[in-house]
Write a structure and sequence with these properties.
The protein is mainly beta. It contains no helices and six strands. This is BACK domain-containing protein.
């Protein structure tokens, strides 16, 4: 199970940020290049979280809010 990721598109690249894998909240950021069909892992977010909002603002990917587990 994988739920709660934030998704946005910048210049034909789909970014998937955070989420929940059924066991823990994720800090991962991955992108899918629609032209090449390849996935790439990027630098992780500082705080693992799910149900985030993701959007593009002035050409930059912004990830905000979400649920953070304080284990």
């Amino acid at each position: 199970m994988f739920i709660g990721a934030g998704v946005s598109v910048v210049n034909d690249i789909i970014y998937v940020c955070g989420g929940y894998d059924g066991n823990e909240h994720l800090s991962t950021v991955e992108c899918y290049n629609t032209n090449t069909g390849h996935w790439t892992s990027l630098q992780h977010m500082i705080v693992p979280r799910c149900y985030v909002g993701a959007c593009v603002l002035q050409g930059n990917l912004m990830v905000v809010a979400g649920y953070v587990s304080l284990k």
